[in-house]
Design brief:
By secondary structure, the protein is mostly helical. The protein is built from 11 helices and 4 strands, in the order ααααββαααββαααα. The longest helix is centred in the C-terminal third of the chain and has 30 residues. The chain is extended, with a radius of gyration of 34 Å. The termini are far apart. It holds the Pfam family Cytochrom_C1.
Length: 284
């Protein structure tokens, strides 16, 4: 009899569990675009600073490859002087650009060689010209792009190396390119690092696509936060000072109050009673 009662209950439980398994919500971690991998950039660590040799190479990549479309209006040549390159070298680079200045005594604008106080020149005179030259897309300014973009370092590095042939079923019209890490998969920027050897590094580093992507990302990270190293150093000094101060205060507190642990506190010490509470309780 018990077997007859148990078997239907077992069948009902099995069917309920099967139904729950069928209708349970499925979890999907696929995103559009997918999250870029977590690359081990040296600057990410709390105890590490910028790689200045990589930043120097990244500036060459930006100047020779990226500056043809992207501007950096918030960066001046003087910011790189004696930090990324020597002052003499930065003066030579600034003088290689023609800057529109003025007006002069006659009220006219004129062109002069660039100097250290000048900002990086923009590749286009205005936004409309930039959109017209790039099929309606306006190339973003890269001054603070690594901090303004979510997962800035990893995203830019993955984007530069994420150009692929479009999969079957995806039509790519003229002027667009397929990139795995760009929202929607179609980007208007052609592959800027399409081959190795686009830049001649002065220090003899092999100029591969991944090396150029790493260097330009490090340069953009430095450009977004030039005071990153000083800020991190001050934070470490403050944390160390707080740790030492906590140890000193703790040692002083213990040395001052260690004698109080052996004190015997009596009621008459506070209230002036001639007898203890126990005697008073017995008398009553």
């Amino acid at each position: 009899m018990w077997r007859r009662l148990i078997r239907p209950g077992t069948a009902v439980a099995a069917s309920a569990s099967a139904a729950f398994a069928v209708h349970a919500p499925s979890r999907c971690d696929d995103k559009d675009p997918p999250h870029p991998p977590r690359y081990p950039f040296w600057v990410k660590s709390v105890f590490h600073a910028h790689e200045i040799p990589s930043v120097r190479r990244g500036y060459e990549v930006y100047r020779q490859v990226c500056a043809t479309c992207h501007s950096m209006k918030q960066l001046h040549f003087r910011h790189l002087s004696n930090f990324v390159l020597p002052e003499k070298r930065m003066k030579e680079i600034a003088a290689s650009y023609d800057v529109v200045d003025g007006p002069n005594d006659e009220g006219e604008m004129f062109t002069r060689p660039g100097i250290l106080v000048d900002a990086f020149p923009s590749p286009y005179p205005n936004e409309e010209a930039a959109r017209y030259a790039n099929g309606g897309a306006n190339p973003p300014d890269l001054s603070v792009y690594t901090t303004a973009k979510h997962e800035g370092l990893d995203y830019i590095f993955a984007l530069l190396l994420g150009y692929r042939d479009p999969p079957a079923g995806i039509e790519v019209r003229d002027g667009l390119y397929y990139n795995v890490y760009f929202p929607g998969g179609l980007i208007g920027m052609p592959n800027p690092l399409h081959s190795d050897g686009l830049v001649d590094y002065e220090d003899g580093t092999p100029c591969t696509k991944s090396q150029m992507a790493k260097d330009v990302v490090n340069f953009l990270c430095w450009a977004a936060e030039p005071a990153h190293d000083e800020r991190k150093l001050i934070g470490l000094k403050a944390a160390s000072a707080c740790l030492v101060g906590t140890f000193i205060v703790g040692f002083w507190y213990r040395s001052m109050w260690i004698g109080c642990a052996r004190w015997r506190i009596r009621p008459e010490d506070f209230f002036g009673f001639p007898e203890s509470f126990e005697t008073m309780g017995s008398n009553t």
